[in-house]
Amino acid sequence: MIPLSWYLILAAVLFSIGMFGAISRKNAVAVLISIELMLNAVNINILAFWHYHSQSLGYTEINGLVFAAVVIIAAAAEVAIGLAIIIAVYRLRKTVVASDINVLKG
Amino acid sequence: MTPLQIVFLLVSLVTIISAIFVVSLRKIFHAALWLIVTLMGVAIIFALLEASFFAAVQILVYIGAIAIILIFAIMLTRNIMSDEEMQINRSWGIVLLLVLIFSVIFISQLSSSAVINTTLVPLEFQGQESIIAFGVGLLDPAGYALPFELASLLLLGALVGGVYIAMDKKGGENK
User: Which of A71, A105, B111, B133 is 20 to 30 A removed from B60 (C-alpha atoms)?
Assistant: First the structure.
């Protein structure tokens, strides 16, 4: 009974909030948190379209579910690697401010 | 207004407000706690979409694992960035403007397209049928068996790589 567009607008607003955080936060952990928000918005979109496609087909369409699962798996791997990098950089440079991490700058 | 729509509006309001807290709060630890509220709201949205498996996975993986790992990382790097200094960089005004333009364009395009008239109705099949179909599709060699195995390899590689990157290679000589 809920319009499809409500889900899409909610996902767009969440994605925008996450994008604002990912670009403007200074702390590298906060950037990772914002990226989590963006990935959640993407998953809402995927599952909303999965529901719409399943209801018009009359049976379960599994492609959307597999995509959502891949997004969750990629998010888990991204957080594990991202936090490991942040901890390694923190040990090397004693900072978590994203603009101060310029080890690769020549 | 059906009861389901009222539930959706309440949940999305809580989700959006806590997401704004996540990106704007000065104390990073409080931001991580508000992230848990946001993830819980998204899990309820998944349940409203009749994706019950993903509602459970959202709670198990995001709240149970990712949020806790983030809190661990915040506590490990805690005292290096004081909570009093500015948490967002100088160009946040431009970023806010760009993000607002993005959302206005998206919502106006959405409301002028045919999608605005589409309504999601409850699915005709039981929720467990979709979970069984999902499981069969993941293990079917003609379906998604290969991406499923690749995903498990990706997780293993990320785990080993994460341990290797975060390992103290000097043996803690800086103590």
Answer: B133
**Dist. CA B3–CA B19, nearest whole Å:** 24
Mean pLDDT, range B87-110, rounded to an integer: 88
Q: Which of A82-96, B62-76, B133-147 has the lowest mean pLDDT?
A: A82-96
**Residue A89, pLDDT score:** 86
Please say whether the beta carbons of A43 and A72 come within 8 A.
yes
Sign of the C-alpha dihedral computed for residues A78, A79, A80 and A82 taken in this order = positive
Query: Model ipTM?
Result: 0.90
- CATH 3.30.930.30 for domain B1-79, yes or no, is no
Write the CA distances from A45 to A58, B35, B42, integer angstroms.
Answer: 20, 19, 11
Contact between B81 and A27 using a beta-carbon 8 Å cutoff = yes
Q: Does the beta carbon of A55 lie under 8 angstroms from any beta carbon of chain B?
A: yes
For chains A and B, count residue pairs whose Cβ atoms are closer than 8 Å. Answer: 250
Q: Is the dihedral of CA A69, A70, A71, A75 positive or negative?
A: positive
| Cβ-Cβ contacts under 8 Å, B73 against chain A | 29, 83, 86-87
For chain B, the domains span 1-79, 127-167
Local structure of residue B64 (DSSP, 8 states): I
Q: Which of B49, B103, B138 sits opposite A48 (nearest CB)?
A: B49
The residue among B84 and B175 whose pLDDT is bigger is B84
Q: Which of B66, B144, B166 sits opposite A66 (nearest CB)?
A: B144
Mean pLDDT of B86-105: 87
Question: For residues B160 and A81, is the Cβ–Cβ distance under 8 A?
Answer: no
Contact between B48 and B7 under an 8 Å Cβ cutoff? The reply is yes
Q: What is the pLDDT of residues B129-163, one digit of tens each?
A: 888 888 898 898 888 999 999 999 999 999 999 99
